[in-house]
Amino acid sequence: MKMRLWLALAVVTFLFMLVNPCINLRVHFSLETPINEGIEEARANFQEAYNATVEAERAGAKVSEAVKKLNNALDYIFQAENLSAHGDMEQAFFLTQASIQLSEETLVLDQELKQQAETLRYTRLIVYIVISVALLIFGVYAFFIGRRMWKRHKQNKFMEMRVKGTLGSK
Question: Which of 29, 55, 60, 114 is deepest in the core (most CB within 10 A)?
Answer without folding.
Answer: 114
